Structure formats: C-alpha cells, structure tokens
Amino acid sequence: MKKKFFLFAGILISFSSIAQNKSTNYNLDFTKKDQNLVHIKTDLDLTVAKNRFFMITHPSQNNPDGEAKFLKNLVVKNQKGKPQIINYLGEGTWEIQSTTTGNYAIEYDIITEHDLENWDHCGGYDEVAYKTQEGLFFTGYSLFVVPDIPVLGDIKNVSVHFTLPKNWKASTPWNKTTKQNDFIVNNDLRFLLNNCIFVGNHYEKEIKLGDFELLFALGNSMKANENDFIELMKPIIESTTQVFGGAPKKKYLIVVNESKVMTDGSAFRTSFSQIIKGKVNKNSRTNWGHIMAHETIHLWNGHTLIPKEQEEWFKEGFTDYLTNILLARTKIIDEATFYKRFENVITKYNITRDLLQNKLSIQESGNNKDQNRYLVYGGGELVALGLDIEIRKATGNQKGLDDLLKSLFTEFGKTNIPYELTNIITIANQVSGKNMKPFFDDYVTGTKRIPVTEYLAEMGLQLDGFLEDVYISATENPTQQQLQIKKGILGL
Ligand SMILES: [Zn+2]
C-alpha cells in the first residue's frame, strides 16, 4: 500500500539525473490464458533502483503479498543472458543478488486467479483483476513490475505489446501505434500502473466527443445497453469540461461488466472500471449512472487535480456534489431525485454526528476513509453546497463553485501542481471577493455543524426533519434571489 504513495508524490520534482530516455517495453502474452496465466517479458534498467524492482500491492492479513502472490516463475537474466539469483524482500519487492547493475531481462507469469482472493480491503476485485466469459480485466498494478525508484514519473517512453489468442483484442487507455496490438503509454510509468485494461473477445466501441476519444469495453451482457452508457457519458463529459474549463486528457477507457456481487466503480488515471449488478435501464440509472458520473468526474478531480496531502473531503465530497448537480443540470435526474439524494446525504451526516457521536473534522475524517465514509462523502458534499451558496451570496449569484473549480483546475490541474487546502481558500477568497477562511476553519478543519437548513433555504429549498429523518421540498413563494441561486446551481 505504501508504494502507491509514489504515484502521487513528487510530481514536479524532476531528478534529471535519473530521468530515463530509453524506452521501457513490456510484452504480454495471453496465448496461455486457458492455463490461467499471462506471460510477461520486460527489460528494465535497474541502475538507479540498485537492482530492486517491485509491484504495487494491496496486502491484507490473509494475503500479505497482495497482487505479488500471483506472480510466479520469475526469471531474471543479465545482459549476457546469465540467470540471476533473486531475493524476495516482501511487500512486492525483489532484489537481484549481484554486485553489478544495469539492464536486466525479466520474465514472469501472472496467474489469473485473483478471483479466489478477497479484495474488499482495497475496494473490491474490480480494483485488482478478474475474469469474465469474454476475457480478463487487470489494473496495471496487478500486471507489471517496475524499477524501485523514488519517482516513477521519471520513467517515460513506456510501451506495451500484446500477443493475443485469435479473435482477442486489448482495450487500453494507451495510444495505439501502427503495429497491431501495440501501445505507447501516454505520459509516464504512472499511467501504466494506475490504469485498467480489458483483454478478450468482448465488445469494443469508440466514440469521439470533441477532443475526447471515449473507448468502451463492454461485457457481452452489457452490449445491449451501450446507448444508455453513451447517453449518460456524453452530457456528463460535456458539462464537466465546462465546469473545469477544459478537459484533462484525450483518451479514456471505460470497462463495464456485469457483477453478481455489487454495483461499483473505480477511477484510474485515464480509465475507469465499473461493475453493475442487476438490470441496466432508465430506472436503475439513478444508481449505476451516479457511479459512472462520479468516476468520470474523478478524471478531473482526483486524477488531474491531485492533493499534496490527504484531502478526501474535497476529492470525494466535491465530486459527489458535482455528480448530483450535473446530473440535475443535464436532466438525467429530475428534481425529486435530486432532493432524495440530498436527503440521504443529510441523514447520513446527522446519524454520524448525533447517533454515532463522531466528532472528527471533515478533513480529518479522510484519514480513515472507509470508516468515516458518511463524513468524507456526505460531509464533503455539504461543505461543497455551503461553499457554493457562500460564493453566490457574496457575488450576487454572479459566481459559484464552478468558478472556484475552474481556477483551481487552471492553476493546479493543467500544471500538474499538487494543491493544498490553503490554495482552495485563496481561490475561494478571490472568487467570492471576501475572506472565506472562517468558513473552512468552521466546517473543514473545525467541527462546527454545517447549517444545511439555512444553505438549502438560500436556494429556495425547505428542509424539515426530526433527527435523521429529513425531507426536502421547494419553498413556498420563493423570492427572486432564491430562484436565481437555485437556477445557478441546478439549472432548474
Ligand atoms: Zn470517488
């Protein structure tokens, strides 16, 4: 788990001395898939890594090696083709026992039996690897070993080649080359690892949305719903691009498969994976569509705008707020559904504060995201609502949270500079033209109760309730100002 940190840290720190211009290539052979294995070959420069290489793992008590448990038949040879002695150091790290260093040819098998393990501790099997009737899903973490260097982003020029069974294809978020089944990893090594792929005889559909290339990899049972997915993704991508004043990347892969377990999603750098339990239709869209939109918005907030330290309240809470308001603005959900979603958020917030007596600040709650889910997602979403209203009140509804996000994205997203809470406060001050620090002191780093009733009233909504039972309705005889703020936020 600790290794994952490298993916986000030190983005701007460039160790030109260790920057590698040589290309790093991975060959993935899927022709032995019936023997439950993928054979991988690579040649890694381990000079800076002092002969160590590793794979990012998600260890658990039952499986302390995480993804590395499925790596077998490791063979390492030096430049002269001489096999090397390798020591496994634990936590997915290996060391070559040699006094000289340089390039090494590394070969191994990935046994495709990840399904047998429980991955709930790291977000479920859809964040690791799984098998369907059509093929195999992997994250980069579950497939690739890489040099153990401090800044993975220093390794550029990464390419991946697939050798596939007949009628199979590889759906990846990477750029195709002119060779068949051959890809260049856009950007750097982090985009090899922090992404997902699907390899098989599944259905693939490519759509162009302006600058965007959206690639769907759908399990056969999902194929019938391709238009449902497109009808959701198109307006969500368009409206999110508008909010942030631009789009971060050009190509996205979306893998959608049926699940017997649950409906869930996970976003990576330029891809996301979604599993859906139950019927896919307009009714169930409130559920799977929310997840799909949430994961898409993460491509901006979470995978382009990246915090320096833990700011889960902003990453998850603001993403959920945007998900709800953009689904309302694009008329994918109606007003009543919007109310219901917010009622749920408030209910969970009240339960956490009143019944569970959780006194953590919204920011602190992110240190233990799973346990404090309601505060991270729900609390964060209520902070987003409060901030939106405060900015609108201060500017006569001329500015809103959209403007804050746009500035933040310009300054920190497009430039790859990790943001901090102080940066959000500075931009909130600029956008609203007033000192917003007390707001953050009260509701983000402090534990003051977010005055949800008052905030909703500002946008012409009435909140009634007793303890955790809450109901939202439209205010009777709203003022012009209330209606304008509501229109600014929901477009309704
Ligand atoms: Zn999320």
Automatic annotation (TrEMBL):
Residues 25-183 form the Peptidase M61 N-terminal domain. Transmembrane segments: none annotated. GO terms for molecular function: aminopeptidase activity. Residues 1-19 form the signal peptide. It holds the Pfam family Peptidase_M61_N. Gene3D superfamilies: 2.60.40.3650, Neutral Protease Domain 2. This is M61 glycyl aminopeptidase.
